[in-house]
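Submission checklist for the structure archive. All mandatory fields must be present; incomplete records are returned to the submitter.

[x] Identifier: CPBP family intramembrane metalloprotease
[x] Organism: Paenibacillus gallinarum
[x] Residue count: 180
[x] Sequence attached
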Amino acid sequence: MSTPVFLLIFYVVICLLINEMIKFHDRKQGENPNHWGLRIGLVPLLALLPFVPIILFTFFYTIFFYSFSEFTNIFSASSHQSLFNFSLTMLIGFFICEEVLKPMIITLLKMGLRLHISEYTKHVITIVINSIFIYLISSYSHGIYIHSFTSAISIAVFYSIIDWILMLIIHLYNKLKAKL
């Protein structure tokens, strides 16, 4: 069985399970079951909802890494499929780094040094962790080539600069919204 057929069957099974959960909830609450057409339209939407941010961020990461491969010689990808797979892996990896590794390392440094860790130190830790992760994932990915560890550091610094710019925009937007 091919992958698209398997994914379609998996999606239909998830939709049917969500449909049954909605019916069970309606019966448990003592309400009249929803109209069948409403439930059929709502179930696929609910089943796709968790995948929307993952797909969007993977698309943005693919564009980010594609632009790096087109405009520099430190990163290259052999195909769009390998670039998409690398972007999805990096999305999961950056999530793990930001939510697990970075807080653990900062806590260990605070406990070991018994000092307050500045924001600049936290940014340096983030850049180092991200560059190590980029280099490791690229070395194990087929069709993705990063020329050296300094290239991975360059990509991590560029990624952090974009992150800082977006955070500044969000901060300015919230400040402007608070004034209104």
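[x] Structure attached
Curator remark: The CA atoms of residues 156 and 167 lie 16 Å apart. The longest strand covers residues 75-77.
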